[in-house]
Amino acid sequence: MASAGKKVREANLPLPIRGSSDSRISFFDKLPNKTYNRLIMEKKIYNTVIGAIINEKREILLLKRRKEPFVGIWAMPGGSIEFGEHLEEALEREIREETNIDVKFLSVKGLVHEILYKDKTSKKLGHYLIWVCELKPLHFNIKSSREGPLKWFPMKDLERHRENIAPSDFLMIKKFVFKKTPKIKVYKVKMYKTKERYKIEKTDL
After folding, report:
1. Which fold does the domain 16-203 belong to in CATH?
2. For 51-62, what is the mean pLDDT?
């Protein structure tokens, strides 16, 4: 693997995604900021789970991102769904990794299709399907991770901090946290491939 001092081939080294615990991060952590921010997102759609953690004081927990996208901006904790992982497993794992809080997945409140462009050009920097989840925190013993520091924000004062919060995260909080929205049912299928055919072993469809 190339060291931080060597020239990085931009086409082959994608940025890690929102809140990712990707194994590539240990390499990216060693890169100078200018080099890191020059790297181009690989052309794929990322499935991302996020959730709003609200405490008994009606404060929401946000993370100040250390990595692209939204470096230095506050956002909801969460990250990528790993291969072979169910939605609720990804949410609970990512929240625990980024905040130290154990949570229980309750439901999906919304699905947001987000494309990030460079300035006002047609150049695409990132493409996400964001699963906005409802969750139940099992405790509030927070601990910051390498993804960024954590801070509680009073819900009633959130508008005052709007400029410092990721724009889409702010809208998702307004839409799915402040307002009551219907839950989205997500169905599961466990299937086997044999030599002759495909067989469903378990499903709630």
Report:
1. Nucleoside Triphosphate Pyrophosphohydrolase (3.90.79)
2. 98
